[in-house]
């Protein structure tokens, strides 16, 4: 709805001598749109005061329009969301269109999540003279966001108390989140690895096998893959790891549902297969590598 809401054309009936549109003209322009939707439509001035709002606000928040008109919009915003409103006001003041999620105060004192779509109103000279906004019920989006945060908090709690490394793979197949256990097991900090390229720490000889496996799960031709390969630790030496990637079925904020777990298997590889790590030094930009060390010789 809001994306299709046109701003009043410069010079329409109701413009003041200074080029700004009167509240009556704005109300007339948006009333038909407001009456055809369950969303709330409103306008405001450059000081952040509400100048007009559709009657649908009553069914959504419990207020009648007269309760809001003439009052600062910020009075109805949850205190924790006020910084978001301040940034949006600055953006709208220079002509930006803004989308934000806020909690707005209802007439009964509770707060309701709302998706706010804000756009500037300009006069015939291109000056910003106010704001027009669409308020859309954001309860579903809010609950989905809270559920995602709760799942990720649960993953973190498990990962922080595990001996394995747990990694969430982003939609771009780069590292989006990694468990704190990675520092103890590899020497890399979480900050070192976030956003790292897919093959940056993999032994060159193992890249084709890893690439084939990740392509398979990225294409959704399988729900899980596993392999064994060598990864470089911060000390510059490669170590053997058992790796698995699976789809959780529960998407993170970026739409990805891939979780990778890694378990070190240096001792098993050396004892059962006699497959030491490559002794060739491996260096790559951005990470500090030193010569590799055979598996089982100590970190």
Task: Describe the protein.
With 299 residues, this protein is of the alpha+beta class. It folds into two domains: 2-137, 2-Layer Sandwich (Beta-Lactamase); 147-272, Beta-Lactamase, CATH 3.30.450.20. 28% of the residues lie in helices and 25% in strands. The protein has nine helices and ten strands. It has helices at 23-35, 57-61, 65-68, 82-93, 139-160, 181-186, 190-193, 207-218, 266-272, and strands at residues 40-44, 50-53, 98-105, 111-122, 128-137, 165-169, 175-178, 224-232, 238-247, 258-264. Strands 2-1-5-4-3 form a five-stranded antiparallel beta sheet, sandwiched between helices. Strand 4 (111-122) and strand 5 (128-137) form a beta hairpin.
Could you give a short description of this structure?
The radius of gyration is 28 Å and the shape is elongated.
Notable characteristics:
299 residues, alpha+beta, Beta-Lactamase, 10 strands, disordered C terminus
